[in-house]
Design a protein that fits this description.
The protein has 193 residues and is mostly helical. The chain has 10 helices and no strands. 62% of the residues lie in helices and 0% in strands. Helix 2 crosses helix 10. The longest helix has 23 residues. The model has no long low-confidence stretch (mean pLDDT 93).
Length: 193
């Protein structure tokens, strides 16, 4: 029997993000997932090492790695459409859930439960909440990079995403915003080696 799960995941590189906006540098879902994974992992480590948390750092990393996996079936629906109204949002969440279940069906039965933990995660866990914060931070960094490149197309998105980050009550997010985020505003010449 053939299992197509990994072949589907390899197609993440073909799914363009920010489809309704002109980007100076295009971003695909695979690149975005890597950025989110690195940020989520760092947030989990910060939470544990600086704030005495009990976050599973590797689970957080894996959640972030797979957080957009369903988009290999659905594509990336632009945010203004996804959140246009509650009916569309609910329908899209149902579609995402179905896509993730279909994707899991592309695995051998013996592996499904191991991947289900990351493809269809518990949304109340601290690891999931940290991953979602990392997702927002990655979106904000993309906006910063575009605005720095003179692309005003991302100016409003930058403000909107920033407002969601500011609302976070997670200590690790506040730490990241205060101590790490400012570096993304710098040019290469401004970064110190």
């Amino acid at each position: 029997m053939e299992y197509d799960f990994f072949a589907y995941l390899s197609r993440m590189k073909y799914i363009k993000r920010w489809a309704l906006m002109r980007s100076t540098v295009e971003e695909n879902v695979k690149e975005h997932s890597w950025d989110v994974a690195v940020i989520a992992h760092s947030l989990a480590i910060i939470e544990n090492k600086i704030f005495g948390g009990k976050v599973d750092e590797y689970k957080t990393f894996a959640l972030a790695t797979y957080h957009e996996a369903g988009e290999v079936i659905t594509g990336d629906l632009p945010t203004p459409i996804k959140y246009f109204n509650s009916q569309i949002n609910t329908a899209y969440k149902d579609l995402e859930k179905l896509a993730c279940e279909k994707l899991l069906d592309k695995l051998p039965e013996e592996l499904k439960s191991s991947y289900a933990e990351f493809i269809t995660p518990n949304e109340t866990s601290i690891e999931y909440k940290i991953m979602k914060s990392a997702d927002r931070i990655a979106a904000y960094i993309k906006c910063v990079e575009e605005v720095k490149s003179g692309n005003k197309e991302f100016a409003k998105a930058k403000k909107t995403v920033w407002k969601t980050i500011e609302k976070s009550d997670l200590n690790c997010v506040k730490y990241f915003v205060e101590n790490i985020m400012p570096s993304f505003e710098k040019t290469l010449d401004d970064l110190e080696i």
